[in-house]
Design a protein that fits this description.
With 195 residues, the protein is α+β, with helices and mostly antiparallel strands. It is built from four helices and twelve strands, in the order ααβββαβββββββαββ.
Length: 195
């Protein structure tokens, strides 16, 4: 019994002593995880044949890819906040836009009016919900996440509270409500087409 007690105490003492002890670098245990990089390794590396590499499509201000990427270098039709002509199903009107981080931002009130959607605005929490038929888009000012049909999806830039409304990327609003956008250079107008 005494032998068992001495063995337990000696093992416990060794475990406690090992706890703050730095092991010597000469210890070979686990060395396969800490191999130094060899410059020749990069030359001989090949991507697996069934794997597609470097597939990163360009971001556009008028297409919502629903992935967390953005390209602020992609040219916008405007450089400063201004009104643009908008054509929706043959109807022409003027809409105020704000350029920012490679995206055109538009008021939820105005875009819902243009695209025939209803908007519900929660002033205190700065949340807007746009609905058109069975399509729904919920956004919150200061967030770069949108809930498209109750599925959380990243937006290319944050929604912004401005002039008693929430401004969101035009691509997000239009694509979520069933429209594609293009820019007509001759008319200097945004053209909305139903998808």
């Amino acid at each position: 019994m005494l032998a068992i007690l001495i063995t337990v105490i000696s093992i416990g003492t060794r475990v406690i002593a090992d706890e703050g002890y730095d092991r010597d670098d000469d210890d070979d245990e686990g060395s396969e995880y800490y191999q130094e990089a060899n410059e020749d390794d990069d030359e001989n590396w090949h991507a697996p044949q069934n794997q597609v590499t470097n597939l990163q499509p360009s971001e556009y201000w008028n297409v919502w890819t629903r992935e967390a990427r953005n390209n602020p270098d992609n040219p916008l039709p405007i450089n400063e906040p201004t009104e643009l002509t908008v054509l929706v199903e043959g109807n022409e009107t003027s809409v105020f836009f704000i350029p920012g981080e490679g995206q055109l931002l538009v008021s939820v009130d105005r875009i819902s009016e243009l695209l025939g959607a209803r908007v519900k605005f929660y002033q205190q929490s700065k949340i807007a919900v746009l609905q058109k038929g069975d399509l729904e888009l919920a956004i919150r000012a200061g967030s770069n996440a949108a809930f498209e049909n109750k599925i959380k999806t990243p937006m290319p830039t944050q929604a912004t509270a401005y002039e008693n409304s929430i401004y969101l990327p035009i691509s997000v609003a239009a694509n979520a409500l069933g429209y594609r956008i293009s820019f007509d250079n001759t008319k200097r107008a945004l053209v909305f087409q139903s998808i």
